[in-house]
Amino acid sequence: xxxxxxxxxxxxxxxxxLDRLEAFYQDVFGARTLKRLDLDSERFAAGVGxxxxxxxxxxxxxxxxxxxxxxxxxxxxxxxAPGAPANAVGWRHxxxxxxDLAAAAKELADRGVPVVGEGPVVVDRPAAAAGTGFLYxxxxxxxxxxxxxxxxxxxxxxxxxx
Length: 162
Known about the structure:
- By secondary structure, the protein is α/β, with parallel strands linked by helices.
- It has helices spanning 18-29, 42-48, 101-111; strands at residues 10-14, 32-39, 55-61, 68-74, 93-97, 115-122, 133-138, 144-149.
- The protein is globular.
């Protein structure tokens, strides 16, 4: 029997520079900080399985999103492989739907945020994804962020949506 769930609450990124990453998501995506938590109890350390672990966490809400982006800075971090390629095993990116991918790409260029690959690109197949535009970028910690613009709904010759 599957575990019954009610909602996806948050996606978490661990960073060694919390203020820098929080500012990036606020500045680039208009994220609003919902709360900041100082996690310094023995129960927290026991729960994450790291003896003595303490951390600071912020919860950000990007306009239009229902899932919170959780950024956490542990006081003692374990080194990771920042900038892992898109095909590396494990959680690899977060994605935001945007209404105008070309405008988003221009905004990124104006801010000096480089894209990964040749984005934006429009997918031509499979048929279920045809017309979807996307691009990848990296946040200051090297995490991949995907921007997606779904295809416009098909219309009939009379102008009605199909």
